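User: Before I run my own analysis I want an independent prediction to cross-check against. Here's the chain; please return only the structure tokens and, at the end, one sentence I can use as a sanity check.
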Amino acid sequence: MLDSIVIGGGPAGLSAALVLGRAGKRVVVFDDDNARNKVTHESHGFLTRDGIHPSELKELGKKDILKYPTVSMEMQRVNEIHRENNHYQLITENGDLYQTKKVLLATGLKDVFPHVEGLDKFYGSSLFSCPFCDGWEMRDQALVVIFE
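Assistant: Structure tokens:
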């Protein structure tokens, strides 16, 4: 029986696992490596790491959490979660069964783009979906807002 399962291996999920691991909790982080920011060149807003490449930030986070013997990471998707009396049962895409007292969802967001032919070709180069991530770099430039 695990103390906690964290679903999502981005900055939020890794930060939660770090704190839980430092508290001696038995934790497994699940991540399917399908990040929203996979086309992003730089991550911002992380103290001492402003402008870091997202994959480097993630790798550093993995190294940090895996220093703690009670924390592990599984690179697979969780397909099912069931409540069983006083705990949860999770089934992964590989059919593995895990039991835990707590589940923390840190899956982030997914963008839903309007149906405009060829739009995906510009995502990450001249089309950006997050003003917090890319707003500073795009300041003082022309802006188009697309509503559907």
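Sanity check: The domain at 2-110 is CATH 3.50.50.60 (FAD/NAD(P)-binding domain).
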